[in-house]
Amino acid sequence: EVQLVETGGGLIQPGGSLRLSCAASGFTVSSNFMSWVRQAPGKGLEWVSVIYRDGTSTYYADSVKGRFTISRDNSKNTLYLQMNSLSAEDTAVYYCARGWRSAITPLDYWGQGTLVTVSS
Amino acid sequence: EMVMTQSPATLSVSPGQRATLSCRASESVYSHLAWYQQKPGQAPRLLIYDASTRATGVPARFSGSGSGTEFTLTISSLQSEDFAVYYCQQYNNWWTFGQGTKVEIK
Question: Are B55 and A108 a contacting pair, CB within 8 Å?
């Protein structure tokens, strides 16, 4: 059974850093395109970042470029999102999701999400 | 910048009735269009991809159509479990979501 479990969310002060983790089971993270998608409270979905199968190709939404870093640990079958210079606008539930095809892929499995709250 | 526009924002439908949701892309996404369902407190669930292909386990009452810039999600006979928010998403050029359509009980 495919499963994605995010952890690492919490309350953080503006300007702070946080690292989210997404542990995968039932499939291999390195064989898929893995994304982070976020949802601000009461708002819609926003794609944040993707890491390609090669592990070195990474891309970001303009809203997080230069502040967030996506990575993975193949030995742990886990995806990460390092978030720096956080602001209130980054407050959201963060989901990891799998894209199972090429770069042109929908997202078929999603984790349950982890809430990040940026506030003083 | 790719923009996905969904209409209407809210759709009030009686159980057993048909619901038709629309999604428009600011430029052609070919058939690289997906629909997701999200219920309160839950993650999105993939319903339709490649504009018209149902994902595994999705009931046949859900159908998608369209290509290029105009797309439609149809729920042929609404069941109680279908009342939720629906998002379209293009994946032709990165990933962009529409703002969502809430399907509520009339």
Answer: yes
